Amino acid sequence: MEKKKVLKNQEKRVTIVCCYNNKEQYGIFVESLKNQTMPYDLIGIDNSNQKYESCSRAYNSVISRIGTEYVIFSHQDIILDEVVVLEQFVTHLERIEQFDILGVAGAKAGEKRIFTNIHNGKGKFAGEERIVDMQEYDTVDECFFGGTRECFERYPFDEVLCDDWHLYAVERCLNAKVNGHKVYACGSSMIHNSVGRISHGFNVNLYKICKKYAGSFKQLRTTCANTRTDLVGRALYYFRREIRVWIEKHFVYK
């Protein structure tokens, strides 16, 4: 496949923010960015010394440093395997409203399928249904998402509700919808080297998010979970998942 020429003199319109604790993975991610056809700013947050106890706090700490129109928050284990991925994603960002959210993997209540065009590290398709162009969803995955700089200045990540490393994008999506904005995922293709194990921290954060948004949403669908938000529904889901975490800890990953 012929590579497109990188437009070195093009004005930077997007900043990519990545909080990492694995320098090798982060290095691979950075190398994949260097081949992209559009310029960008990169803010890497080195958390190998565990300075930040949550991704919400880490991301909020650099919002004031973003000088571009758009911002993307990315996992350290993402690889942009096509040179036009960033350019295509920014093209989709141009189509959404100022306080909307855009990701690359989406989920919606009442729908069992996960919609995405990304692949895991083994080349396997990571979802059940591919996205054509850009579609509206309830929530998007944390692996790669963003919006305008103004969006995350006005609506920063919730450091109290999401005080771990999970569901901070989901909470931002629900917050956006409550405030009359929209959530989208687009058909950008990339590699995500993640095992996606459910943890106690994930379960706790999910329960708290369900409790906060129970008055607005009867059901919460994410790319990793599907639960009712009412007291009984969220409690049952929490305890079922805690049993699963215990089994995996003592028998599966022992």
| Poorly predicted regions | 1-5
* Structure class: alpha/beta
**Average pLDDT taken over every residue:** 92
How many strands, what sense, and barrel or not for the largest sheet?
7 strands, mixed
Strand content: 15-25%
Using only C-alpha atoms, the radius of gyration works out to 18 Å
Number of strands: 15
The number of helical runs is 7
Helix-strand string:
EHEHEEHEEEEEEEHHEEHEEH
Portion in helices = 25-40%
The coarse silhouette is globular
Folded structure, characterized:
The chain has 254 residues and is an alpha/beta fold. The protein is built from seven helices and 15 strands. It has helices at residues 23-34, 55-60, 85-93, 149-154, 168-178, 200-213, 231-252; strands spanning 14-20, 41-46, 70-74, 78-79, 101-103, 105-107, 115-116, 119-120, 134-136, 139-140, 144-148, 183-186, 191-192, 219-221, 226-228. The strands form four sheets. The protein has a seven-stranded mixed sheet with strand order 2-1-3-11-5-12-9, sandwiched between helices. Strand 6 and strand 7 (115-116) form a beta hairpin.
Strand and helix map with partners:
Layout: E1 14-20, H1 23-34, E2 41-46, H2 55-60, E3 70-74, E4 78-79, H3 85-93, E5 101-103, E6 105-107, E7 115-116, E8 119-120, E9 134-136, E10 139-140, E11 144-148, H4 149-154, H5 168-178, E12 183-186, E13 191-192, H6 200-213, E14 219-221, E15 226-228, H7 231-252
Helix pairs in contact: 6-7
